[in-house]
Amino acid sequence: MSLSEANREALIKAAFEARAFSYSPYSKFRVGAALLAADGSIIKGANIENASYGGTICAERTAIVKAASEGKRSFAGLAVVTDVSSTISPCGMCRQVLREFCALDMPILLVPSDYPKPDNPDFDSGKTASGGVGKMTKGGVKATTMGELLPDSFGPEHLELPRGS
Ligand SMILES: O=c1ccn([C@H]2C[C@H](O)[C@@H](CO)O2)c(=O)[nH]1
Ligand SMILES: [Zn+2]
């Protein structure tokens, strides 16, 4: 699976738009996520914090729960942007929640807050990002996939397996 250039740009723009609605008075760390659904629509989500702290919901889960609860359960890509210029990866809990609905080869774009970063030989090299999964791509975007972020994962298909007695 791969994203067209137009879809990639639309998804990145939507992630920035989503970030504007972050409710993050405690961490002051805004996050925006945008999911491209199989029907071509884009669903946005922001992190929504809570005075209890533990009730906080990340941007990625906001987006996927918004989508799934409106009947969209098949996706072609995800983009995530935060307030920092290094690329930030979804937390463990979000990876598992995304895994429920996203194919292992679904592209995930991790976008720096200063996107597009100026040209740099590494940014279009397709090199593996240092110290982790994914490839560096145009504008400083780290491109990875669901399966790279959550290898050897547990998913809905495993509940269909025959059970031992
Ligand atoms: O991938 C991430 C990482 C963090 N956060 C949120 C949760 C919390 O509101 C704030 C700080 O952890 O950032 C996200 O939304 N997505
Ligand atoms: Zn998360």
UniProtKB/TrEMBL annotation:
GO biological process: nucleobase-containing small molecule metabolic process; pyrimidine-containing compound metabolic process
A Pfam family: dCMP_cyt_deam_1
Ranges of compositional bias, category Basic and acidic residues: 155-165
Residues that coordinate or bind substrate: N47, I48, E49, N50, A51, S52, Y53
Catalytic activity: cytidine + H2O + H(+) = uridine + NH4(+); 2'-deoxycytidine + H2O + H(+) = 2'-deoxyuridine + NH4(+)
Highest taxon of the lineage: Eukaryota
Record EC number: 3.5.4.5
Enzymatic class: hydrolase
A GO molecular function held by the record: zinc ion binding
Domain CMP/dCMP-type deaminase, first and last residues per copy: 6-157
Gene Ontology cellular component list: cytosol
Active site (record annotation): E60 (proton donor)
Cofactor(s) required for function per UniProt: Zn(2+)
Function: This enzyme scavenges exogenous and endogenous cytidine and 2'-deoxycytidine for UMP synthesis.
Sequence similarity: Belongs to the cytidine and deoxycytidylate deaminase family.
PANTHER family, per the entry: CYTIDINE DEAMINASE (PTHR11644:SF2)
NCBIfam families: cyt_deam_tetra, PRK05578.1
Protein name per the record: Cytidine deaminase
Gene source species: Dendrothele bispora (strain CBS 962.96)
